[in-house]
Design brief:
mainly alpha
């Protein structure tokens, strides 16, 4: 479950190829959210993972922890799905 932060906007879930949300649109929204407030990197990763669903979430969850310990790594991986 995605953590809830007071005042944080709702971000649609990115599901991967064939989902309702295009990656670049979702990426802009998630980056905007993460830059709008001061979060630790662990919080940013948690928020990002919580904004994933279906194929995208499965793909990221099978990565090793060191391969998904920063938002930059997650976004770089998802860009090539």
């Amino acid at each position: 479950m995605m953590p809830v932060y007071a005042g944080a906007p709702w971000i649609p879930k990115f599901k991967g190829i064939g989902g309702d949300t295009k990656f670049n649109d979702w990426k802009e929204q998630i980056q905007g959210l993460l830059q709008a407030r001061e979060f630790s990197e662990a919080q940013k990763v948690s928020i990002t993972l919580g904004a994933l669903a279906d194929e995208a979430k499965r793909e990221v969850c099978v990565l090793g922890e060191t391969q998904r310990d920063t938002v930059a790594k997650i976004l770089a991986y998802l860009e090539f799905l």
